[in-house]
Amino acid sequence: MSDESHHPVTTDRPDSPFQTTGTDHITIWGSNAEDTIAFYRDLLGMPLVLRQPNLDDPSQTHLFFDTGDGRILTVFVSDDRPSNPRGQRGGVGAVHHLCFSVDPDTYEDVMAALEDAGHRYNVFDRGIFHSIYTTDNNGLVIELSADKYEIPDDRRGEVLATAQRLREEDGAEYAKDDHLRRAIEAVGLEVVEYDLPDASAGVGGVE
Prior knowledge:
The protein is 24% helix and 26% strand. It is α/β, with parallel strands linked by helices and 207 residues long. It has three domains: 23-81, 2,3-Dihydroxybiphenyl 1,2-Dioxygenase, domain 1 (Roll); 94-147, Roll (2,3-Dihydroxybiphenyl 1,2-Dioxygenase, domain 1); 150-196, no CATH class. The strands form two sheets. A five-stranded mixed β-sheet has the order 5-8-7-6-9, with helices on one face.
């Protein structure tokens, strides 16, 4: 049995014992407060909304950042930990990357700000969105994605599931721009495209 037939993609809620209602927060191990705040607040523009001891280990500080929509990124930090930009170890259970959305109208400004701050980055057209990849002060891969088309938040899952169906019908390796555009039309939404710069297309680029 193929993976696609065994695990269908659908917006229908699964027959599970319970269902989550959204993402509350994600917590990562950080280095020190100064470098962490410099990256997430001063460069990415996430307000620092709460600072308190790590309740499981009061020798550490727990920083809370608003990622832009009320969903929170929290970081455990300690002043005795230097940043480690060499990169994270991969493997089962590890975090590959974190992705945050940015306003498509500010996309080029984002690239300029990363450059000015000395952060290297790559840009890709991922078919259904554009992505800028960089790293934080500890080498964790950070993706900054911009929508290619205007999609209401409450219809996003429906649009993506429809794009998946169209991708399967076409026998395509991954969901592409045409699948997304057709999906938007299929669910009865107006196709409103953002003006984004050209970028390398498709797969690859981040290990």
